[in-house]
Amino acid sequence: MSKPNRASRWSLHGMTGLVTGGTRGIGHAIVEELAGFGARVHTCARNEAELYKCLRSWEKEGFIVTGSVCDVSSRTDREKLMEDVSSVFNGNLNILINNVGRNIRKPMVDFTAEEFSTLMATNFESIFHMCQLAYPLLKASGTGSVVFTSSVSGFVSLKSMSVQGATKGAINQLTKNLACEWAKDNIRSNAVAPWYIRTSMVEQVLANKEYLEEVFDRTPIRRLGDPTEVASLVAFLCLPASSYITGQIICVDGGMSVNGFYPRHD
Ligand SMILES: NC(=O)c1ccc[n+]([C@@H]2O[C@H](COP(=O)([O-])OP(=O)(O)OC[C@H]3O[C@@H](n4cnc5c(N)ncnc54)[C@H](OP(=O)(O)O)[C@@H]3O)[C@@H](O)[C@H]2O)c1
Questions:
Q1: CA distances in angstroms from 143 to 31, 135, 140, listed in the order given
Q2: What is the superkingdom listed in this entry's lineage (predicted)?
Q3: Which of 23, 142, 207, 264 has its CA 20 to 30 A from that of 245?
Q4: Is 200 a pocket residue for ligand 1 (Cβ < 6 Å)?
């Protein structure tokens, strides 16, 4: 293998990427980070007005970003999305960021069959199918990188998150399996596992000041994460600079998942 120079190891110029759920939160930051490193990016979301607002704003910033309205929990929407991606990028895709995921917080005994299916379909079945659809495009590109947005809930137990945690645990295992199954095609597979990141998904639960204090108590770095702090790791995992890293799930959690017992007041 020829050794690329430093500039090309830290650049995504000439590469193409799909980021699901790019209009807000972590996905939005990932779109900007990948585009900032020179990639052409396609993204999707359900809300058309919000999607087009983002696309206009990225265009003004000089980023090359296109988008599709798509609900990734729908099989037909996913197929249409991948047709769009194939058409925009001429059948080549270097980067697939499976970012969309949702949460329903309640004790596991209270889950209805429908709620269980909804979470499984949105968080796991959809990304499994997205990977199947993207595979020929990733392979055709010659250098592929898949990154999943997992969660610390896939490693440690979190209150009222047994189903969501199970979907993220499944993602973590898929990350490892794809790393081995697709290495022959020069496609890497990694995941990022955030703890609390300040986004629209968690603003309601974090509006509770006492709960927020408990989050800070449990987090060695004593603050929430910012979406850009996840996006920078995702970009790194897509850069040629990380070309020997595959099958890894990396926490972006201010130390939360390694925190045994460090009392705040001792
Ligand atoms: N924020 C955290 O603290 C945290 C912690 C751990 C893990 N995570 C994970 O990080 C990922 C992103 O979370 P976030 O906090 O950035 O969420 P967010 O702020 O709620 O943003 C979600 C994005 O995904 C889009 N989206 C949601 N459902 C979709 C669907 N069914 N089809 C297509 N697009 C959809 C949304 O647009 P539309 O609503 O218009 O569709 C929006 O662009 C999730 O997988 C989540 O589990 C987040």
A1: 19, 12, 8
A2: Eukaryota
A3: 23
A4: yes
pTM above 0.85, yes or no: yes
> Ligand 1: distance of its center to the CA of 199 in Å?
8
Lookup: tokens for 34: 């990948």
Burial label for 14, CB within 10 Å (0-12, 13-18, 19+), is exposed
230 C-beta neighbours (distance < 10 Å), count? 26
104-124 burial code (b ≥16 CB/10 A, e <16): beeeeeebeeeeeebbbbbbb
- Name the residue among 36, 22, 33 with its Cα closest to residue 233: 33
Q: Tell me, in angstroms, the distance from the centre of ligand 1 to residue 163's CA.
A: 16
- Segment 211-229, tens digit of pLDDT: 999 999 999 999 999 999 9
Going by C-alpha positions, the residue among 79, 76, 91, 27 that lies closest to residue 54 is: 27
